[in-house]
Specification:
heterodimer, A: 505 residues, two-stranded antiparallel sheet, B: mainly alpha, disordered N terminus
């Protein structure tokens, strides 16, 4: 531990910002912008501190309630640092996009910053106690953001979102209760080490009987709701559609990653063996998520719902990679495939976060300019009056489609590279998702941007200077990762190797 | 056979460690047009000259570099060195595996890059005239330059991943250019159809790529013995068995071939190419005739060692047999449909599909040189035909229906004479370029020991080709004018490229005749000799194939020559064979078939997914919610009657926050928070209990 508790500061920063924003009145957005910018700078600083061996760094430990196994324990590796950067980017984008909040902006931006704090906290926590606190606390600002600033059907959507995700947490909580009861520890690193030797399973079985598979199911249920995995996703389309677009950016760009992160930080390390035994049904669910998510997206008429389901599909690839790699490593070939899949999953998390946030931002622009329209059929020919919007949104759409040269392709390629040798059936069926996603995205382009221009959109305003300036770095990032993925993989791969070395399937 | 072994012994591989300057700067060839595209993208609409200048300038430099590289390979060939120089680098490292990219300079890539640069440059210049009045002129050159860069990227790739990436970007530019006139719904639909149809092939290709990578541990084709196209890796793939009785080599080869089927418009994925004619004509010439659609053929040639892995003398492999049959069937199928089309560009599009079938069949029957030779000659004469058609369309005020044209022979002489050169080359008339390359394919087909049927199909296709082209030129150039519009010759910026291509369409075949098979020797890294006796060996075939072409031309002239029917009159063939005509006219109903199968399935399944979501998953969740409510009621009774006040009060307090939310909408939050509160209390109790012990 070096002198400055940088991770604690990182989490505290948005909390301070939130308090200031609450009292800043009309200047709340400026406060939020400055805070999120500072957050991004700090997150990038954390990213530069990553070591070459992929181990945890910037570790902070402080005794809290030792008799209860509770310790304030923070740290980052390549996975969590990337998620910090992603959360910072997405929150900044969201604040930037939310320039039309006129109703109680101070409360709005206070909530957004609290959400950022919960994200930072959950991506740095290494003890279940405060990790779970952040996990649950993130729901409260998200709930109010949907409930108070959402669309017409916001109330049921917000409630559903809240109840489902919390219901999912029950399994998590009970599972950890059992683990703590058996081992006296709630520390992720300690428990991972125990699981790697099989001591965790023995301890639990000795105390509570053969409940390990049930604990694994409980933990998986919590994350399956959050990611979401079909069929635990029914809260999602309404929540994404009814939330104001900047909030949807946060939900899909950052919060959905908490679920995938949990699978990687908690489920696989502690319950890898149990997950490996349930691998086939889990893979089936992952493939269903990929394929049916894409098909469901094809049936939607509302742009936000189209991309809500498309998000389900994209995160489905993460689930596919995670469950496919849960096999006992037998030889170098399997290890290489596991490493490829895991690298791909982590890249996909980041890429989906950036791309989906950008897409919902573009949808917000379409809504602002059309008096709130967001139906697929409500537009047409917009490329003529708004060529820059069409061009930049086109780039984001093709990134989502997985076009090489843009960010989305790299993650998907690595996931398929990893999954194919481990489960060629799952990979081959999932590839249908790539095809359907392409059909969906091209249909969106066709309906929104091509054809004759309807009279009412003849003077549809194009993106103005400020918007172009705000979007340019995002588009640049898509290109940068698409062309030079080593920028991310270089720091993620050591962590991947480190994680895989500690997991036991 | 003996002679070939001697020849191979005489040629020695180049020193892998020494990479020439030409190979080191090879990356600039695709990079320059790509960078030009990037710059043009930032230009404004009125900066037309600058955008065209950047595109043409960058491709000119690429052409110079390509010729330099080509000269280097030729010099090596003259010194009996089989040049294959690669430059590779690691793109990223995952686990212990390297994801490598790189480029290769060998006879195959050298000849292809010169062709792409040269034909591309002519079409760029032609476009300055053709697109002169288009408001999105700047954008057009941006897309064209991006296309050229990506296509050249495909050509020089030494890594199947880099090839795939460029392959997809080529697909993107094709999409953008087909839909260039995006305000036309038909163009937008055609662009989408093209992208999606080719992507069907591409997802299989992607599976092939990841399988090849997983199986061989490398993405590189050639890497000093460690590449996937080199004997060590091929042997490993042959020794691995997979589903359907195929070796891994065979299965991977077929997956990769699926990508080629999509891009090169082979059966059953040919449906997008005729629709792609919605794009501006220079696009049709460059992308959908000369280069991009030939990328599939090039891909098969590039992975030919894999396709042919384990081949026995006189035999074939599963992959090569599939390639041959798909090619031969496509050749005839598309030629039949071409007979009954009226749109000048659609006739040429079906002709392209058919000729791509010849190239594929050539690869399957005779190997890389046979297929590639037809690819190169076809690129010249088909680009010429499309640009000629563009000149006709331009000159007759955007008329594309051949039956409304006529008598253009005298009004557009430059266009006419060059078009005739292209048409005779396409028909395979001696001594035009197409004759020699088509003859090579037929010769290989005649000698194929697996089956004679591909040969018969290809001969029949040659007859059909001569027939439909005669029909087309009769309608367009001969007879009387059937339109009131006044046709005129196109400007020099369009006719000069036509003349240059016309020259090559006439003489290019001479580099690969049986007498002096330079092309074949160059690609096969063996010396070329003048061999007049070869004329005798293949003389019979030449005479008979010439006769077949003459029959086709004669039949065509007999039906259509100098008839000048009115546009409303039924077609000559329609009068003779009405049912056949209807089937051909409707393109054998393939689009309709896909409409009721693939597309219907897509929509149906989307509805199923949506219904499942709303009813089944949603219903299950509603059921769980009801169950929870029931439990909550029980819990409440339990609370009221059994639990002491303190506990109850604690619950109430914790649920207080939930009560606030519950007033907002429903009781579910409250119920749930109650459960959570209970869980927390239990947790606390257990924690306290266990910490005592």
């Amino acid at each position: 531990m070096n002198g400055i508790p940088i991770l604690t500061l990182l989490t505290a920063l948005p909390v301070v910002g939130a308090v200031i924003a609450l009292f800043a009145g009309k200047h709340a957005r400026t406060v939020a912008l400055l805070t999120t910018l500072a957050g991004l700078a700090l997150a990038l600083l954390v990213w530069t501190k990553l070591p070459a061996d992929g181990a945890m760094v910037l570790v902070e430990r402080a005794a809290w309630a030792p008799s209860l196994g509770i310790e304030y324990h923070l740290g980052v590796d390549g996975l969590s640092a990337l998620m910090l950067v992603l959360s910072a980017i997405v929150t900044l984008m969201s604040v930037d996009a939310a320039h039309r909040v006129h109703v109680r902006p101070n409360v709005y931006f206070c909530m957004v910053l609290l959400l950022e704090a919960a994200l930072f906290g959950s991506f740095t926590a290494l003890n279940f106690f405060h990790w779970f606190l952040y996990w649950e606390l993130s729901l409260i600002p998200a709930f109010f953001l949907i409930r108070l600033w959402g669309g017409a059907k916001r109330a049921p959507a917000a409630t559903r979102f809240f109840v489902y995700t919390m219901a999912g947490s029950v399994g998590l909580l009970l599972a950890f209760l059992a683990v703590f009861l058996s081992t006296g520890s709630m520390d992720f690193e300690h428990l991972t080490a125990m699981a790697a030797t099989g001591a965790l399973g023995q301890a639990v079985t000795a105390h509570l009987g053969p409940v390990m598979p049930w604990l694994a199911v409980g933990v998986l249920a919590g994350f399956a709701v959050k990611v979401p995995m079909m069929p635990f996703h029914t809260w999602l389309p309404d929540a994404y559609a009814e939330a104001p677009s900047p909030v949807t950016m946060l939900l899909t760009g950052a919060m959905s990653k908490m679920g995938v992160y949990g699978l990687l930080r908690i489920a696989l390390p502690l319950f890898g063996h149990q997950i490996a035994q349930m691998r086939t049904p889990l893979l089936v669910l992952a493939v269903i998520t990929v394929v049916m998510g894409a098909f469901a997206s094809a049936a939607q008429k509302d742009l936000k719902r189209v991309f809500a389901y498309s998000s389900v599909n994209h995160l489905g690839y993460c689930l596919l990679g995670i469950f496919a790699l849960a096999v006992p490593a037998a030889g170098a070939a399997v290890q290489t495939s596991q490493a490829a899949a895991l690298n791909g999953v982590i890249l996909q998390m980041f890429n989906h976060g950036v791309t989906a946030a950008a897409l919902f931002w573009f949808i917000a622009m379409l809504q602002e300019r059309s008096g709130g329209e967001r139906g697929l059929e409500h537009f047409g020919g917009l490329r003529k009056p708004a060529p820059v919007l069409a061009g930049l949104m086109g780039i984001a759409l093709f990134a989502s489609l997985g076009l090489p040269g843009l960010n989305g392709f790299v993650g998907e390629f690595l996931i398929f590279r990893g999954v194919f040798p481990l489960s060629w059936v799952a990979a081959s069926v999932s590839i249908l998702g790539l095809l359907v996603t392409a059909a969906v995205i091209l249909t969106v382009i066709q309906k929104v941007f091509t054809g004759p221009v309807p009279e009412k959109w003849a003077s549809f305003p194009d993106m103005h200077g400020g918007e172009r300036l705000a979007m340019a770095p995002v588009i640049g990032l898509m290109l940068l990762i698409g062309l030079l993925p080593q920028l991310i993989v270089g720091s993620v791969n050591p962590t991947v190797m480190n994680l895989l070395a500690h997991w036991r399937f | 056979m003996l002679m070939q072994e001697e020849v191979a012994a005489a040629f020695h591989p180049g020193n892998a460690c020494i990479v020439s300057f030409a190979a080191r700067v090879l990356w600039l060839i695709p990079a320059l047009p790509m960078m030009a595209a990037g710059v043009i993208a930032l230009l404004k609409q009125p900066q037309r000259r600058l955008s065209a200048g950047l595109a043409i300038g960058s491709l000119s430099i690429s052409l110079v570099l390509a010729v330099m590289a080509f000269a280097h390979v030729v010099a090596g060939w003259a010194n009996h060195v089989a040049v294959r120089e690669t430059v590779d680098f690691t793109w990223m490292q995952v686990g212990a595996a390297h994801v490598d990219l790189g480029w290769v300079l060998d006879p195959l890539s050298a000849i292809m890059m010169v062709m792409v640069c040269f034909v591309g440059l002519l079409i760029f210049i032609y476009s300055v005239g053709y697109m002169a009045h288009d408001e999105n002129f700047t954008r057009f050159f941006c897309f064209l330059a991006l296309f050229a860069g990506a296509m050249l990227g495909v050509v020089i790739s030494n890594s199947i991943l880099l090839l795939f990436m460029n392959w997809e970007i080529v697909g993107l530019t094709s999409y953008l250019l087909i839909g260039f006139w995006y305000h036309k719904p038909s163009a937008a639909a055609a662009a989408k159809k093209a992208f999606l149809t080719t992507r069907i092939g591409d997802v299989f290709f992607l599976l092939g790529v990841v399988w090849l990578f997983a199986q061989t541990g490398t993405l590189l084709f050639y890497n000093g013995g460690g590449g996937s196209m080199e004997p060590l890796a091929l042997g490993g793939m042959l020794a691995t068995h997979s589903a359907l009785g195929l070796t891994a080599a065979g299965a991977i080869a077929l997956l990769i071939f699926a990508g080629a089927v999509g891009k090169s418009g082979q059966l059953p994925l040919h449906v997008w190419l005729p629709d792609a004619m919605e794009g501006p004509t220079p696009v049709s010439a460059l992308i959908h005739a000369a280069t991009m659609v030939a990328a599939g053929v090039y891909l098969v040639a590039r992975v030919y060692p894999l396709m042919a892995a384990g081949i026995q003398p006189g035999g074939s492999t599963t992959a090569l047999m599939v390639v041959t049959w798909v090619g031969a069937l496509t050749a005839v199928f598309a030629a039949l449909i071409a007979i009954a089309q009226d749109d000048i560009k659609r006739i040429l599009a079906y002709s392209t599909v058919s000729q791509l079938g010849y190239m594929m069949a050539g690869l399957g029957l005779g190997g890389v040189a046979v297929g590639m030779f037809h690819l190169i000659t076809h690129a010249f004469f088909k680009a010429l035909l499309f640009m000629g058609a563009g000149s006709v369309i331009h000159g007759s005020h955007d008329e594309q229906d051949v039956r409304k044209m006529g008598g253009l022979k005298d009004k557009m002489p430059w266009t006419f004479y060059t078009y005739m050169a292209g048409m005779l080359a396409l028909c395979g008339f001696i001594p035009f370029a197409g004759f020699w390359s088509k003859d090579g394919i037929l010769d290989a087909g005649k000698g194929w020991e697996v089956s004679r049927w591909p040969f018969y199909l290809l001969v029949f296709g040659a007859l059909l080709t001569a027939f439909y082209m005669t029909r087309q030129i009769s309608y367009v150039f001969f007879g009387h004018t059937r339109s009131e519009k006044h046709a005129h010759e196109s400007p020099a910026v369009m006719t000069v490229p036509l003349a240059i291509l016309g020259f090559f369409a006439t003489v290019l075949g001479l580099i690969g005749t049986p007498v002096w098979p330079w092309f074949q020797s160059f690609l096969g890294s063996s010396p070329a000799h003048f061999e007049f006796s070869a004329l005798g060996e293949s003389g019979m075939l030449m005479v008979s194939s010439t006769l077949v072409v003459l029959v086709g031309l004669g039949l065509g002239w007999w039906f259509y020559g100098n008839k000048s029917p009115k546009a409303e009159e039924p077609d000559a063939l329609e009068r003779v064979m009405p049912p056949v005509w209807v089937v051909l006219r409707n393109k054998m109903y393939v689009d309709e078939l896909y409409g009721v199968t693939v597309i219907a399935f897509y929509w149906w399944w989307a509805q199923v997914a949506d219904w499942l979501d709303r009813r089944v998953w949603g219903g299950a969740v509603a059921g769980v919610a009801w169950a929870f409510r029931g439990m909550a009621q029980l819990n409440r009774l339990f609370d009221v009657h059994w639990v002491d006040g303190g506990f109850d009060k604690g619950c109430e307090e914790l649920a207080g926050g939930g009560g606030l939310l519950a007033r907002v909408q429903s009781g579910r939050v409250q119920t749930y928070l109650r459960l959570l509160a209970l869980a927390v209390v239990v947790l606390a109790a257990i924690l306290i209990w266990s910490s005592r012990g």
